[in-house]
Structures are given as structure tokens and as C-alpha cells.
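Chain X:
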Amino acid sequence: MKLLTAALLLLLIAMCLASAEGVKCKCSRKGPKIRFSNVRKLEIKPRYPFCVEEMIIVTLWTRVRGEQQHCLNPKRQNTVRLLKWYRVWKEKGR
């Protein structure tokens, strides 16, 4: 009986941790199409134990909406191009 109780308790803890895993990861991976000229800031957060991929957070500025933060999928081709562009742009001292 004690073994069964311990097993159920372990199962319950594992289920709670698995459901909390998705909550802690900030990115929903549904970023909009980005104009490079609107990028104000680009942050690359490392992979955490509760997140499968690294988080790429972009701060955009537009006249209509002001500043907005979006999460991007690091595997998308557009995101890879944005990272390359941003590194070159930053090296030029702008």
C-alpha cells in the first residue's frame, strides 16, 4: 500500500512539473513578419531547462502601435536572416 501511494505521489508531481514547463517558457512562437527597419532591440535568451529552444525577443517600434515585444521562432529562415542583419548593423555602430 505504501509503495502504491508513493508511486501515485511521484506521478502527480511529475504531471505538475510537466504542465508548469510550458507556462514558464515565454515564447508562443507566433511572431509577426518583421521589418528590419522597425527593430529597436534584439535579445537572445539562452535555453533553459523548461524551454526546448532559445528565446529570441524582438522589440519593435512603429508610429501606430509604439513599442511592442515579440517572440520569434529561432528555426525560421526570416529569424536567421534578422539575426545576421542585426549583428552586421550593430557592428557598424548604429
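Chain Y:
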Amino acid sequence: MSALKSIRSLAPLLDRVLVQRLKPEAKTATGIFLPETAVKELNEAKVLAVGPGAFDKSGNRVAVSVQPGDKVLIPQFGGSPIKVGEEEYSLFRDHELLAKINE
């Protein structure tokens, strides 16, 4: 099995969504740096790529509900983890995403 050289070469299939979990701030608003163990992992992620959508019972393609660049709320656990170098990504099905964050 060859290692993935770039996450850009990964194209999600069907209704899968490729996300990267956002890293929490390691510094408080007052400028105090927090140790890594005190920083809670966020459930927010940025959508990097989406599949073309799944098919319904009639054979029609159902588009994915998010687009690359969107911020989404993801479950604490689940998804398929993918590691490229030191970076970690996850693949979720569209219906597993909890919410889209509108800013």
C-alpha cells in the first residue's frame, strides 16, 4: 500500500465528506498559554472535499449538504481517520455531520 503524499489527491466517494478538525486555541484571551493536556479537542471541522452524493431508491443522485470551505460540527467519535504526514483528517458520511456552522 502506498502512502498518501497529499490530501489533495484524495477524492471522497458517494456521500462522504473529508474534514480536518479545527485545533483549539492554546492561548487564552488574556494571553496565558495552556498546556496541551488542558486544551479540549473541538468538535468543529473544516470541510476540505465532498463526494458527488449518494443515490436514492429511484436512482437519482442526492447532493451532499455541505461544500468545501464550510465549517461543520462533527461527532466526538466516529468517522474514518486518515493521516498524511503529521496532519490528521477524517472521512464522515454526510448524514453523520451534526450541523453546518454559519458565520
